TrEMBL record, chain B:
Its main location: membrane. NCBIfam families: succ_dehyd_cytB. The keyword Iron applies. It comes from Streptomyces venezuelae (strain ATCC 10712 / CBS 650.69 / DSM 40230 / JCM 4526 / NBRC 13096 / PD 04745). It is found in: Membrane. It holds the Pfam family Sdh_cyt. It comes from the Bacteria. Keywords: Heme, Iron, Membrane, Metal-binding, Transmembrane, Transmembrane helix. This is Succinate dehydrogenase cytochrome b-556 subunit. One of its GO terms (molecular function) is electron transfer activity. The chain crosses the membrane at residues 21-42, 54-75, 96-116. Belongs to the cytochrome b560 family. GO terms for biological process: tricarboxylic acid cycle.
Length: 158, 126
C-alpha cells in the first residue's frame, strides 16, 4: 500500500526513464539573458580564457608532440641532447619561432589551467589571492627568462 | 569521505580528474624545463651537466611518465574540444574517451623502446 502511495506522489515527470546518460529533468538556466539584462554584465574575460584554452590547445598538440618526437624519440632519443644539439637547432629561425611560440602558449595555457584549479579548491579569498599572486609571478618570470634565453642565445659563449 | 567529492562518477568525471592531474604535472615540469634550458646562457658545461641527469635510467622512467601525461592531456583535450564544438560531441563523449584511451595505450606501447631503450642498454648492457 505504502509503495503505491509513493509512486503516485512522484507523478509522471519523475517516472520518465532516467539512466546514467539522461540523469535529470531539464531545468532552465537560473541566470538566462532576458530583455531586461544589461548589455554587458561582467565582461568577457572568462569566455576569452575558455576560448584561448581550446585554440592554444590545438596549436600546442602540434608544437609539443613535434618537440617530444625530436627530443625524446628520433635519433637516439634523449642521449643525443647537449649544448651542441641546442646550438644546431637554434641556428635556424624556424626552430627559434617554434620554441618561442611553444613557450608562450604552454605557459599561458598552464597558468590559466592552474588559475582555474586554484579558484576551485582554495576556499578562502586570502588563500586564493596569495596562490594566484605566486602563480602570476612565477609565470611572468619564466616566460621572460625563456624569451630572453631564446633571443640572446650565443653558440660561441665559450 | 567528505560530502561532494564524488560527482556523477563514470567516464565524464574521471577523464576530467585525469585531465586536471596531468595538466598540473606538465605545468610543474615546464617550469623546471625552462630553468634547465636557461643554463645554455651560463655555459655549455653547466647545461650538459644538468642534461646528463636527464639521461639516467630513473629520470628516463620519469620521461616515459611525462610522455604518458602529455599524450593523455593532448588526446583528451581534443576530445573536450569535440564535446564543446561538435553538435554530437556530448552524445559520443564516452565513446570518444575510450577511443582516446585506446590510442593512448597503442602510442605508449610504441614509445617504450624509443624513450626507454637507452636506459635499458645502460642497465642491462650492450
Amino acid at each position: 500500500m505504502s509503495s503505491d502511495t509513493t509512486s503516485a506522489t512522484i507523478g509522471p515527470v519523475e517516472g520518465a526513464q532516467y539512466d546514467a546518460d539522461n540523469p535529470a529533468p531539464y531545468i532552465e538556466a537560473p541566470r538566462k539573458r532576458t530583455g531586461k539584462t544589461p548589455r554587458a554584465t561582467r565582461g568577457n574575460f572568462e569566455m576569452a580564457a575558455w576560448l584561448f584554452m581550446r585554440l592554444s590547445g590545438v596549436v600546442l598538440v602540434v608544437l609539443v608532440l613535434g618537440h617530444l618526437l625530436i627530443q625524446l624519440f628520433l635519433d637516439g632519443g634523449v642521449s643525443k641532447i647537449g649544448f651542441a644539439f641546442v646550438a644546431g637547432r637554434w641556428a635556424s629561425p624556424f626552430w627559434q619561432v617554434w620554441d618561442l611560440l611553444m613557450l608562450w602558449l604552454a605557459m599561458l595555457h598552464g597558468a590559466n589551467g592552474l588559475r582555474t584549479v586554484i579558484n576551485d579548491y582554495a576556499e578562502r579569498a586570502n588563500t586564493r589571492l596569495w596562490l594566484k599572486g605566486l602563480l602570476y609571478t612565477a609565470t611572468v618570470f619564466t616566460i621572460l627568462l625563456g624569451t630572453l634565453v631564446i633571443f640572446t642565445f650565443d653558440p660561441n659563449i665559450r | 569521505m567528505p560530502a561532494g567529492t564524488l560527482y556523477r562518477g563514470r567516464e565524464g568525471m574521471w577523464s576530467w580528474v585525469a585531465h586536471r592531474v596531468t595538466g598540473v604535472l606538465i605545468f610543474f615540469f615546464l617550469f623546471v624545463h625552462v630553468l634547465d634550458t636557461a643554463l645554455v646562457r651560463v655555459s655549455p658545461e653547466a647545461y650538459d651537466e644538468v642534461v646528463a641527469t636527464y639521461k639516467t635510467p630513473i629520470v628516463a622512467l620519469l620521461e616515459y611518465g611525462l610522455v604518458a601525461a602529455i599524450l593523455f592531456h593532448a588526446l583528451n583535450g581534443l576530445r573536450v574540444i569535440a564535446v564543446d564544438f561538435w553538435s554530437k560531441g556530448p552524445r559520443y563523449q564516452k565513446q570518444m574517451l575510450w577511443t582516446v584511451v585506446g590510442i593512448w595505450v597503442v602510442l605508449m606501447a610504441g614509445s617504450l623502446y624509443p624513450v626507454l631503450g637507452h636506459a635499458a642498454r645502460e642497465l642491462f648492457g650492450s
